[in-house]
Amino acid sequence: MNLSSKIKALLTAFICLLATAITAQLKIAEAFSNNMVLQRDKPLTIWGSSIAGTQVIVQFATKQKETFTDSAGKWAIVFEPLAMSATPQNLTVVSGNLPTLTLKNILVGDVWLCGGQSNMEYPLDRKMKRYAAPKKGIDEAEAALTESKPDAIRYLYVEKDLKKNPVLPTKGWTDGNDTLVRYASAIGYFFAKDIYQKTKVPIGIITSSWGGTRIEQWQPEWSYENSKAFKDSITSPNFKIDGIHPGQMYKGLIEPLIPFAIKGVLWYQGESNAMVEDQKTYPLKFELLLNTWRNLFKDASLPFYYVQIAPYLYTVRKDKKIHSSQLLPEFWEAQTKSLLLKNVGMVVTTDLVDNLADIHPSYKWTVGRRLALVALEKTYGQKQMAWSGPQYASAKRKQNSIVLSFHHKGTGLASSDGNALTWFSIAGKDGKFVPATAVIVADKVIVSSGEIEKPRYVRFAWDEKAQPNFISREGLSALPFRTGL
Fold first, then answer.
1. Is residue 112 a contact partner of residue 163, using CB atoms and an 8 Å limit?
2. CATH, residue 100
3. Could you report the per-residue pLDDT of 162-196, keeping only the tens digit for each?
4. Are 155 and 374 contacting, i.e. CB atoms less than 8 angstroms apart?
5. 76-to-29, 67, 73, 262, 356 alpha-carbon distances in Å
6. Exposed, middle or buried, 313 (CB in 10 Å: 0-12/13-18/19+)?
7. Quick check: 124 and 145 in contact, CB under 8 A?
8. Got the DSSP string for 267-325?
9. Do 305 and 329 belong together in one domain?
10. pTM metric for this prediction
């Protein structure tokens, strides 16, 4: 190579280096921003990008960590668990001669991820989606829009834009007084409000949900490929699970958050799976989602609290299948099975529907508070008088009646309106069910019918229209069930 060529090569290399220096930016993952809440009491991974091979120094409060970027310019630092702090602090990131990155007004507390479909997406400002107003009592969500909000609760809304990668919004975390709070999950808002009032721990709420989505879309495709339950049915890279390829929502709305440390998950999803009559395999898919997310978020016992879908007229939908009125109770039963998993909890919504033709019940404040009861009991160690409605435990035949026993009775069993218990039915050996009389005696329910001399089976709330009045005295609705004597 002659001198002229060498000079040209050096000049080209210098220009490339200069261009890299000019265009290079020090970045932190979009899950991090001003006003955020960092998870307490867990190893905390912070990650981003800079110039390849350069040092990165991250400082938060009195702690400092250093690392170097890899060949692709990626960096990640893990802080030891942080103690709770309601005092706003700054996080700074320094890398070479690039401008220092500073994030302000950061708290340390508990972060909860709100996932699922439209009933979790349902915003605090319901009018944005033209959802119906409640018919009973005041619209507490509407009132919350103008109420004074504690600074210790912060919100992150994940945009519904799968063309962006990552899809997290550029504005990032906001406090409750920012207008963007209207986009936050209404369930997440009221959950956070109750948890903060009872614990005084700063709370972060991440809303990452999308209406009309199936559970398969919220987990990576490889989770199905590696699953003992599903891998044998996978025959091609474009495989489908019950007619849909997994991973779309996971890739866009969950993966960009990983491995952001969180306290737990609030989950409201299932209507779209019910529409494809997925009651048999839904518990397997739910368990797969649970285990996959726990693995990705690096917490084998990550709390996972979910909502049983509400009464709705699936029989009148113009779907490909004509649905039986028992589709929904069978799906309720499928959701109840997941209570056998570790560190989960479920709330019931059979009493929260004004219109059976509307799949979006209004009373999201009640759902949020019921989820908070579960979390306060199971995560925060605050013993509640009741955190679940009555759950069927066992049945015993006694002459011409069946005596039912229950878990989670609270301070006692009751009728919400003071009238006789509704939506109980009974059958003999032939399995032909008739409406039954159900009476609370002490802490049990005795079920009978003059039409059945030798009763064998009982069903409760076993219809898509069921809106029963059977509750605990604390006002929590009983879980739908059927016996198998």
1. no
2. 2.60.40.10
3. 776 544 555 799 998 888 889 899 999 999 999 99
4. no
5. 10, 7, 10, 17, 49
6. middle
7. yes
8. EE--HHHHHTT-TTTHHHHHHHHHHHHHHHTT-TT--EEEEPPPP--GGGS--SSPPPT
9. yes
10. 0.93
